[in-house]
Design brief:
There is one protein chain. The protein is α+β, with helices and mostly antiparallel strands. 30% of the residues lie in helices and 22% in strands. The strands form 8 sheets. Strands 1, 2, 11, 12, 13, 14 and 25 form a 7-stranded mixed sheet that branches. Strand 1, helix 2 and strand 2 form a beta-alpha-beta unit. Helix 2 packs parallel to helix 18. The relative contact order is 0.17.
Length: 607
């Protein structure tokens, strides 16, 4: 076994070992804590209960605990060491020890080459999916937030209003394309460290964009159509998340008002006869427990689990609840509907003359040196790198025909593929993403499994993505593919590296003319895949919207003291990644709850 194989072989094994160690340690502590309860639930009360310790829940719980008592319930444990390392990004994202793996029902319009069954991985650990995703911190377009304001009739969702919340939480470092925008759009006083990822490839990418007629611009301050660098939540070569920023530093401090319980699966929201939420039931390492909330229950379980929890609690479509034998608390047809995501297709390119200043290669003889460099006081070198580098936001002809000429709906992402092996041929890939598609799916509730006593969310979810059911979505993808080929094949920067598209057709497409629209339609059907940008299953909206689950303040319709605060409330994902939007959703909610519940000394009283 050579040295590079030896290094990579350790990743999956150590993930499992640490996950097992963390669970066993917490189980022992739990049994010691519950020993005096005589195997009966000991009901404890808090001001707020936060369900789910993902990107939303950690920020919400940490910030609220500055003034209120908070119980944070997370179904997983601590992120394992591999999650902090950028190079391990893909390895941790699909490991079953730290993720939920949701299979879909068979899809008709994409992923046919793999049988039409799509596996969606979501993080089952503190920090949630943000503890295994690609670190990318993209706010999205200002039009995304203004769209939320229009849909809800609440101007506080406009980008102009939300900018204050972004600046409250961010500690921004790094280069900007327009330094004059720094004070207007950014802050360096918040707790969450984010920085510009300016690998040498970025400059080449920006030049390529200009060659094909596009501007270059900042992706976050006020996103416009054009080519951009990325911003990432990394500091000193390690992942930064809402868990590491808002929860980990305060969890064990003496005066902390936060109580964090790991390996705790919430089963139901407790709702009284007046339709007021007052607590939750949960299984802590499988042991039944109860907690009460004096003020509110805040669901932050994510796009898959939040609608499932509402179903189990009697909130959802009445026909589904009736079939499952669940007493109906509120008939809300939209629970689980409007399931949205960003479909993608990757184009692979052979690099005939790679410039190693732009594309990373680590030879066998360099491995030990780079390992020592990463383990140094200031982590650096090859093992701080990851696939994703620069990006572009493009407005399609379809968007322009709808009068949305400044609201991009195509995203290009250049992937560098840092490589440990000694391959003689090198590749890069370009991801083409449809970011404002019209197709929508569903997270259904498996009533048969529920009646059989199933409690696992993966077994209770009936996942149907339904991507590319709208023709315009396919047309926009093809436009993005053709633009991507122009950038990769016709610009001087990449042409100098002898870059060429690798024609490797799916079996079903081999008889079609390469690069024809018919070929690309077939390739999309066969090989399109999904991002981790799930949203929409508990969407917010006006009272007149039949699929709206929560109002503009994220309160569940018809139920008092219950909110959903995560990506599921977005009518659709922003036109980039979802981590930053989820954070601003949480921070906005924190400020509104602080306004609603006045803080006087050590006492909290209702406003």
């Amino acid at each position: 076994m050579n040295l590079t194989t030896f290094v990579t072989a350790s990743i999956a094994l150590t993930i499992q070992k640490y996950a097992d160690k963390y669970r066993e340690k917490d189980l022992n502590l739990t049994l010691q804590e519950l020993e005096e309860d005589m195997s009966l639930p000991n009901i404890k009360s808090f001001d707020f209960i936060v369900v789910g310790g993902g990107a939303a829940g950690c920020l919400l719980a940490g910030r609220l605990s500055e003034h209120f008592t908070v119980l944070l319930l997370e179904s997983g444990g601590d992120p394992v060491p591999a999650t902090y390392n950028p190079f391990h990004n893909r390895d941790v994202a699909s490991h079953p020890a730290i993720n939920y793996l949701y299979p879909s029902i068979r899809q008709a319009n994409f992923a046919q080459e793999s049988g039409g069954v799509v596996i969606s991985d979501t993080g089952r650990m503190l920090g949630g999916t943000w503890s295994h995703n690609s670190f990318v911190y993209n706010r999205g377009s200002p039009h995304d937030y203004d769209h939320f304001a229009n849909l809800t009739g609440d101007g506080s969702w406009s980008y102009r209003k939300l900018l204050q919340h972004f600046k409250t939480i961010e500690n921004f470092h790094g280069r900007l394309l327009n330094e004059g925008q720094r004070n207007k759009y950014y802050s360096n006083t918040g707790p969450l460290h984010v920085e510009t990822d300016w690998f040498p490839l970025v400059d080449a990418w920006l030049r390529s964009g200009e060659e094909v007629g596009f501007n270059i611009g900042d992706p976050n301050g006020h996103q416009r159509e054009g080519f951009s660098p990325q911003v990432k939540s990394i500091k000193n070569g390690e992942r930064v998340s809402t868990y590491t920023t808002f929860v980990k530093p305060i969890e064990s401090t003496r005066n902390s008002k936060l109580k964090l319980l790991r390996y705790s699966d919430v089963q139901t929201i407790l709702i009284d006869s007046n339709n007021r939420a007052y607590g939750v039931t949960y299984l802590r390492h499988g042991i039944p427990q109860i907690a009460h909330a004096a003020k509110e229950v805040l669901i932050c379980a994510g796009t898959f689990s939040s609608p499932l929890l509402l179903h189990r609690s009697g909130i959802g479509p009445k026909e589904v609840l009736t079939k499952a034998g669940i007493p109906i608390k509120k008939d809300l047809p939209g629970v689980g509907q409007n399931f949205r995501n960003h479909p993608e297709l990757s184009l692979v390119f052979n690099i005939g003359q790679p410039d190693w200043k732009l594309f990373s290669r680590l030879e066998e003889s360099q491995v030990e040196k780079e390992l020592n460099l990463y383990q140094g006081k200031e982590r650096g070198g090859f093992f701080t790198e990851m696939d994703f580098s620069p990006q572009a936001f493009i407005v399609s002809r379809v968007a322009k025909s709808r009068g949305e000429s400044t609201w991009s709906d195509i995203r290009l992402m250049l992937n560098r593929h840092p490589s440990l092996d000694g391959a003689t041929s090198w590749t890069s890939s370009l991801g083409i993403s449809l970011t404002r598609g019209q197709s929508a799916g569903e997270i259904g509730f498996n009533t048969t499994a529920f009646l059989a006593g199933e409690v696992d969310d993966v077994k209770l979810a009936l996942v149907d993505h339904r991507q590319f059911t709208v023709k315009d979505d396919v047309d926009v993808m093809i436009e993005g593919i053709k633009l991507g080929l122009r950038v990769m094949e016709e610009t001087s920067t990449v042409r100098g590296m002898n870059m060429s598209w690798r024609y490797d057709p799916p079996a079903a497409c081999g008889n079609l003319v390469p690069r024809s629209d018919a070929y690309w339609r077939c390739a999309i059907t066969e090989r399109a895949h999904l991002a981790h940008h799930f949203a929409g299953t508990c969407k917010m909206g006006r009272d007149s919207d039949p699929l709206a689950v929560v109002d503009a303040k994220l309160r569940v319709r018809g139920i008092q003291n219950l909110r959903v605060v995560d990506a599921s409330i977005m009518p659709r994902p922003n036109n980039a990644n979802t981590a930053a939007p989820v954070m601003v959703i949480s921070e906005k909610t924190v400020q509104e709850l602080r306004t609603m519940y006045l803080v006087r000394g050590d006492e909290t009283t209702l406003a």
